């Protein structure tokens, strides 16, 4: 059982889809709030982290310590091939899992119960244990198989949160767009945050117009 005041643990997977910044930012925010995070990165995910964020991924645990080591939460990194890791078992208690970004290959594997690596096994555990599972697909355009797989998972209770940033809050930077997406993920996890300005019925726009 979780001790009173103890922060819940989450699994965060990062695949080879474009948009690795979403997973990185999600981990950062969870750790900042003192949560325990179990991180899994696919081999393609490591390549994208290198190409999109400029990470030097030759020494993986070292780079993770450099990026997240000063944050108050606990980060546990699990190699993708480690099928004996804690998160591969339903008896290990975590609150849920997010795969951000989620490639169509990983999404398909989860939809069809193909647990041939730690990421898909951990996702399968979330399904069989009735825990929160959030997938953040990042692909366009989508064909019928992609959509059918998403529908299948949605019917199983999986939250599908595509990487679709909003613009009503007048974002100024790419970080603003990333934070909006991560904020929507956190909403699904019921984790409080202040990453973006919530819609207020247009009152902010009305005030700006009045001031002009």
Please outline the helices and strands.
Elements: E1 9-14, H1 20-32, E2 36-41, H2 43-53, H3 60-68, E3 74-78, E4 96-102, H4 104-111, H5 118-129, E5 132-137, H6 144-155, E6 159-160, H7 174-189, H8 203-211
Parallel strand pairs: 1-2, 1-4, 2-3, 4-5, 5-6
Helix pairs in contact: 1-7, 4-6
How helix-rich are the residues, as a percent range? 40-55%
User: What class, by secondary structure content?
Assistant: alpha/beta
Largest pleated sheet? 6 strands, parallel
What's the total number of strands?
A: 6
Keywords:
single chain; 212 residues; alpha/beta; six-stranded parallel beta sheet
Describe this protein's structure:
The protein has 212 residues and is of the alpha/beta class. Helices cover 42% and strands 15% of the residues. The chain contains eight helices and six strands, in the order βαβααββααβαβαα. Strand 1 (9-14), helix 1 and strand 2 form a beta-alpha-beta unit. Helix 1 (20-32) packs across helix 7 and helix 4 (104-111) crosses helix 6 (144-155).
Offer a concise description of the structure.
With 212 residues, the protein is of the alpha/beta class. It has helices at 20-32, 43-53, 60-68, 104-111, 118-129, 144-155, 174-189, 203-211; strands at residues 9-14, 36-41, 74-78, 96-102, 132-137, 159-160.
